[in-house]
Design brief:
single chain; 342 residues; mainly alpha; 19 helices
Length: 342
């Protein structure tokens, strides 16, 4: 009987007839039908049926044949949200009659682009969708921008992510059972923190607002200390401060960051900044026999910064000198490597 319905036109008349044969046959139909052509006016109904049959990727494949303005005209935003939520919980390779699994990531990005332009979906809902699709978005053109913005605006959210990733320093949550879902959230949270580079208080003109940054750091430190994660919070705060811009005086870091370093006096925060400086440099290529020339240039740069801020910002100057010393050690290692290459 199901083959009979496979052979009928894929339209409302066939579906109305299908209903008369009972739920079992109708469910089997929507769980297995391979869609090649459809009437655009039926798009919403088809997507609802596919979602009810746990086939979000089939719905995604359906939507990519439409232009963005057609999607917004034919489908309510909340249905697009449902598709993305369901897609995060389903393995596309388990779906039946799915024509192309290789382009699923592209299809998901397309739906995010449509939702970005929607005016009836709140940012916190989009941020949640970014979180459940984070492994995809972090490597895509459409970055998880709302998650990054939320981290930079809300220090409590930052601490909640910390709590997902790191155990408390006083073992107060030692008895909490760690299941697969908890591990998955920990992995997501770790990747989120590592890829986040938006300094709290950063303004459109490229400067950092001291009051906004101070309030964010103060609240983040208080909440993290209360949860038993004060030290790791300071390290992670330092890591993000490493991405601060230069100040208007041409010296790095921005004056607002220097003020924070002096005010809070955290060795862990300074360690985080130094590590962040090294990490953001990334993989470095050098010519054969070049040695530590590039590293010595950085030694000179950070030593100069330290000298210029030393009178007003002694802790900052000490941190900058430590960065210069680490690059000096790297320069010596590169010299040795160059000698061995010769």
């Amino acid at each position: 009987m199901i083959n009979f319905f496979y052979g009928l036109p894929f339209d409302k008349r066939s579906w109305d007839l299908l209903i008369t044969f009972g739920d079992e046959l109708e469910n089997l139909y929507w769980q297995t039908i391979n869609i090649h052509w459809f009437n655009k006016d039926d798009c919403e109904k088809i997507c609802v049926k596919l979602l009810a049959s746990n086939r979000p990727y089939a719905a995604l494949n359906l939507l990519v044949s439409l232009y963005d303005d057609e999607i917004t005209q034919l489908l309510p935003s909340i249905l697009l949200v449902d598709i993305l939520e369901k897609a995060a919980s389903v393995d596309p390779y388990t779906e039946k009659s799915l024509p192309d699994t290789n382009r699923n990531n592209y299809y998901i990005e397309e739906i995010f682009d449509v939702l970005d332009k929607a005016d009836d979906i709140e940012d916190n809902k989009l941020a949640f969708l970014e979180l459940i699709h984070f492994p995809l978005l972090v490597h895509s053109i459409r970055q998880p921008k709302l998650l990054y913005q939320q981290l930079s605006k809300d220090p409590i959210f930052f601490v909640e992510i910390l709590k997902c990733v790191y155990k408390s320093e006083d073992d107060r949550d030692e008895s909490v059972e760690i299941d697969r879902a908890t591990l998955n959230y920990a992995k997501l949270g770790y990747k989120l923190l590592e890829s986040w580079h938006q300094v709290p208080g950063l303004k459109e003109d490229g400067t950092v607002d001291l009051e906004q940054l101070r309030n964010w750091v103060s609240q983040a430190r208080t909440a993290s200390q209360e949860s038993g994660r004060g030290k790791i919070a300071d390290i992670k705060i330092g890591h993000i401060l490493a991405y601060a811009p230069k100040s208007s005086d041409g010296i790095w870091p921005d004056i607002a960051v220097r003020e924070i370093i002096e005010e809070f006096g955290s060795n862990e925060m300074q360690e985080g900044i130094a590590n962040g400086v090294f990490n953001k440099r990334g993989v470095v290529t050098s010519a054969i026999g070049e040695g530590g020339i590039q590293e010595r240039q950085l030694v000179e740069t950070y030593s100069s910064y330290a000298m210029l801020v030393g009178d007003s910002y002694p802790r900052t100057a000490a941190m900058l000198r430590s960065i210069a010393n680490r690059y000096n050690s790297s320069a010596h290692r590169e010299d040795i490597r160059a000698d061995l290459e010769d």
